[in-house]
């Protein structure tokens, strides 16, 4: 089946620094990828839709300058959290739409900003 | 706007018993997909079952089946012969032509001995 690899699984960074999270589709081409944020014991909140070769579409209330998304190839999308603050600490999950019109998820990244 | 509602924050079922998780949704689109995802403690999202709105027949996957009532916009998940490994958060989700998934708030299922 379709596999999406997400790295890193855990990252701790200092306040004010930037962190990059990668999401790769391993055995299929993903023209569209999605980035979610999940707080403890809550549902997934869509942050943005990443389209290969074009600008990402951000959901209302998501700061595009803080959460930079790049989808430069059909198999890779990256999320960069810029000037991270403790309130950015969360679980981030990516998803790719596969050829069977399903959605495959990465294993998630736990970001802790100290 | 699309919305998905899961009215049961927590459910408990004994091993080998059957449990049904509820989900209702609201959409103005005629062509859409519905999903149930499982999120175990590892937090990996796992597809349980998928239903195309244009198909009248309810989807089934081994012990998992759905009751899809299109007119009522209801999409419940039935888990038969519950197993300890079924313990997880279960999310109902909807997608339409915009292709982005809208998730419900989730139901935490605990399977007990």
Brief sketch in words of this structure:
Chain A is mostly beta strands and 114 residues long. Chain A is 0% helix and 54% strand. Chain A contains no helices and eleven strands.
How would you portray this structure in words?
By secondary structure, chain A is mainly beta. Chain A is 0% helix and 54% strand. Chain A has strands at 4-7, 10-13, 19-25, 32-38, 44-51, 57-58, 67-73, 76-81, 90-97, 103-105, 109-113. In chain A, a hairpin with a 5-residue loop joins strand 5 (44-51) and strand 6. Chain A is globular and about 40 Å long. The mean pLDDT of chain A is 93. By secondary structure, chain B is mostly beta strands. Chain B has no helices and 12 strands. Chain B has strands at 3-5, 10-14, 19-21, 24-26, 33-39, 46-52, 60-61, 64-69, 74-79, 88-95, 102-103, 107-112. In chain B, the strands form 3 sheets. In chain B, strands 2, 5, 6, 10, 11 and 12 form a 6-stranded mixed β-sheet that branches. Chain B has a 4-stranded antiparallel β-sheet with strand order 3-9-8-7, with no helix packed on it. In chain B, strands 1-4 form a two-stranded antiparallel sheet. Chain B is globular. Chain A binds chain B through residues 32, 34, 38, 42-44, 46, 49, 91, 93, 95, 97, 101-105, 107-108, and chain B through 33, 35, 42-45, 47, 50, 91, 95, 99-106.
């Amino acid at each position: 089946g379709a596999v999406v690899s997400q790295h890193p699984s855990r990252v701790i960074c200092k306040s004010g620094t930037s962190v990059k999270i990668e999401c790769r589709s391993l055995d299929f081409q993903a023209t569209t990828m999605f980035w979610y944020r999940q707080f403890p014991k809550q549902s997934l909140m869509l942050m943005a839709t990443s389209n290969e070769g074009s600008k990402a579409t951000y959901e209302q209330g998501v700061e595009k300058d803080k959460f930079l998304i790049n989808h430069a190839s059909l198999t890779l999308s990256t999320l960069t959290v810029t000037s991270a603050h403790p309130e950015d600490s969360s679980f981030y999950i990516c998803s790719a739409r596969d050829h069977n019109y399903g959605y495959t998820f990465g294993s998630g990244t736990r970001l802790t900003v100290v | 706007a699309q919305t998905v509602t899961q009215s049961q924050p927590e459910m408990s079922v004994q091993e080998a018993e059957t449990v049904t998780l509820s989900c209702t949704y609201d959409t103005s689109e005629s062509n859409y997909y519905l999903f149930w995802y499982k999120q175990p403690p590892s937090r990996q999202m796992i597809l349980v079952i998928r239903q195309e709105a244009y198909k009248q027949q309810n989807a089934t996957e081994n012990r998992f089946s759905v009751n899809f009532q299109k007119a009522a916009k209801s999409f419940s998940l039935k888990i038969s012969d519950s197993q300890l490994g079924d313990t997880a958060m279960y999310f109902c989700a909807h997608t339409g032509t915009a292709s982005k998934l809208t998730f419900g708030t989730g139901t935490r299922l605990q399977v007990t001995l």
